[in-house]
Amino acid sequence: MNADLNMTYVTLGGHVEIHRYRYLYFVIMLTAYILLICFNVSIVCLIVIHKNLHEPMYIFIAALLLNSLLFSTNIYPKLLIDFLSEKQIISYQACLFQAFMFYFLSSSEFLLLSAMAYDRYVSICKPLKYQIIMRTTTVSFLLIFAWLVPACYVVVPIALNINSKLCSFTLKGIFCNNSASKLLCVSSRALSIYGVILLFNLGLFPTLFIIFTYTKIIIIAYQSCGDVRRKAAQTCLPHLLVLINYSILITYDVVIVKLESDFSKTARFIMTLQVIIYNPLCNPIIYGLKMKDISKHLKRLFVKKS
């Protein structure tokens, strides 16, 4: 506790052998951060620049990659500073803000994937009504909904915990997430129930909606001609890969607090690094390789540079 600034600091105790490997950690994470910035920004810029990519599907992809970039920026700069610092600490208020951004952007990813699934469903299952349904106003509404609703949900527990009394000042992690609740002297049953509701509304239900829409798409594609099947495979496979990848990582993040005693510190550290590296780095790679139009523009870009 810093009496002069009236600031409470929390120690991030999830680092492993940081004094020995700090420069190795720093180089690896800095390289990953630079790569994900380059990959995500490149594809977003391509979508913005080229008019033939100004379609709902590509707009949602740009929003998803921007979301991943914000997610990474919420974690990487602080993490890089910690690797080079003697003490890995963060103020409790900043910790709550980081946790808010982490779950706000994580939830937004599920809703953006849901919007993309709906777009593909309308495109493949109701092609004649696509232009009528997926208008600019519809796309704008879905984007606003995907960011505004999670923010309103996640801000509630964060706001209620700002002035809560802490009995522990060491966090078993390398950044602030749901494990911050372990710092409180008294755990609120109401907030625990609210957390389950939040998990269902922003995680499970969107996932079930995505599974339902892609099941319908697969059925329609199977009953249709080869062109429809090819279109379904080209546009839906990347979304499914991203969903599976992200669902596994978020499941780990939710479960780790409940089973923290069963995980070694090293295993927790390695898994946490995977959470913050894989998804932001894999998303642009998956869409860059699997989406034909994006891949075509990327090839033209690199050929010109060569």
Notes on the structure:
There is one protein chain. It contains nine helices and three strands. It is mainly α and 306 residues long. It has one domain: Rhodopsin 7-helix transmembrane proteins (Rhopdopsin 7-helix transmembrane proteins). A three-stranded mixed beta sheet has the order 2-1-3. It is globular and about 60 Å long. 33% of the residues are buried.
Helix and strand content put the structural class at: mainly alpha
- The unreliable regions are none
- Element-level helix/strand string: EHHEHHHEHHHH
Mean pLDDT: 84
From the 3D structure, determine the CATH topology. Answer: Rhopdopsin 7-helix transmembrane proteins
Q: Could you name the CATH class?
A: Mainly Alpha
Radius of gyration: 21 Å
What share of the residues does DSSP label as strand, in percent? under 5%
Order of strands across the biggest sheet? Answer: 2-1-3
The number of distinct helices, counting runs of at least 4 residues, comes to: 9
Morphology = globular
Query: Portion of residues in helices?
Result: over 70%
CATH architecture: Up-down Bundle
Largest sheet: 3 strands, mixed
